[in-house]
Automatic annotation (TrEMBL):
The lineage of its organism: Eukaryota, Metazoa, Ecdysozoa, Nematoda, Chromadorea. One of its GO terms (cellular component) is acetylcholine-gated channel complex. Residues 1-19 form the signal peptide. The keyword Membrane applies. The chain crosses the membrane at residues 229-248. Pfam families: MOLO1. This is Uncharacterized protein. InterPro entries: MOLO1. PANTHER family: PROTEIN CBG04248 (PTHR33748:SF9), PROTEIN CBG04600 (PTHR33748). Keywords: Membrane, Signal, Transmembrane, Transmembrane helix.
Length: 310
């Protein structure tokens, strides 16, 4: 009887677990194979069916992580997503309407790479052939970023390389690539060696937090690049200029009124003089008054008065 009860309990737990995880998709077969896909130029391009299968996006349910070998579990992905939220970024593997106005992020976990495949991908010989693993890791990140540049304009791409072929050397490197909106931080795009005993999740979380500190520090430096005293001095000088222009305008207006007043006074005196002369000569036959003035200044151009008396 006890055995029957135990079997019933086991079956009940199995049914509960199957109902709980029946909506979780299993890991799908991937195109990744270390012997064929170890160079950055062999990675599928974003927005293609091969890319979704290659990066196992359906399984992870996270669009900014490309994990071809399924190194991270779903629980680790959720923990990593909690850290990524601090950056307030969106995925560079989604459409243009995804997270519009925010910086774009991409995380790539490479199970294995090889120096020979990296050299083969650099067909244009833009970079010197790597002679060490750090140089190879840096070149891998640059070539992958360039390979995806037409489809994934990431402002920050974090690439984790776990091992190196052909001897499967377990020497992990993590490389952040700053570009586009974060191009000012490009000097920090250098490979960092990671302990092989350190979990991938911990290494990625550390890289994300470090990038977050750099972005915040750079933003603070931009805001404080202009000292407050310089801004106050500029405002004071601007106020002095405005006041000087206003004062000069007032003085010009006052000086412009005096010529007109003097001209009116001059003509008034001449009229009085003419009236007195006319009174002295009671029968003037002809008098002529020619007075012409300039239209703008108000000063008389010439004044000619003639009296003909019989």
């Amino acid at each position: 009887m006890l055995n029957v009860l135990l079997w019933m309990a086991v079956l009940n737990n199995a049914v509960s677990l199957s109902a709980l995880y029946r909506n979780i998709p299993a890991r799908r077969n991937t195109y990744y194979h270390p012997s064929t896909v170890s160079g950055p130029c062999t990675f599928p391009l974003p927005y293609t069916k091969e890319f979704d299968i290659f990066c196992q996006l359906d399984y992870h349910k996270t669009t900014y992580i490309c994990d071809p070998a399924g190194i991270l579990s779903r629980t680790e992905i959720e923990m990593l997503d909690h850290t990524v939220r601090e950056l307030n970024m969106t995925s560079c593997f989604c459409s243009s309407t995804c997270g519009r106005g925010r910086k774009k992020l991409g995380i790539v976990i490479v199970p294995a790479a090889s120096i020979n495949s990296i050299i083969a991908c650099d067909s244009s010989l833009d970079y010197a052939p790597p002679t060490s693993l750090p140089a190879a890791a840096y070149l891998f990140a640059q070539l992958l970023s360039r390979h995806w540049s037409g489809h994934c304009t990431a402002d920050l791409m974090i690439i984790y390389i776990r091992s190196w072929n052909p001897d499967r050397v377990r020497k992990p490197f993590i490389i952040p690539v700053y570009s586009n909106a974060l191009e000012r931080l490009q000097r920090y795009s250098h490979p960092t060696s990671v302990s092989s005993r350190e979990p991938v999740l911990v290494a990625l979380q550390g890289a994300i937090r470090h990038a977050h500190r750099l972005i915040e520090a750079e933003w603070t430096d931009i805001n404080t690049s202009i000292p407050h005293w310089a801004m106050a001095l500029a405002c004071g000088m601007l106020a002095v200029v405005v006041l000087s222009v206003y004062t000069a305008n007032c003085i010009t207006n006052r000086l412009g009124r005096h010529p007109q007043v003097k001209a009116d006074q001059f003509f008034l005196e001449k009229e009085v003089q003419w009236a007195s002369m006319a009174a002295t000569h009671p029968r003037p036959r002809k008098e002529r008054w020619n007075r012409r003035c300039s239209g703008e200044s108000g000063f008389p151009r010439y004044l000619f008065i003639t009296f003909n008396v019989t």
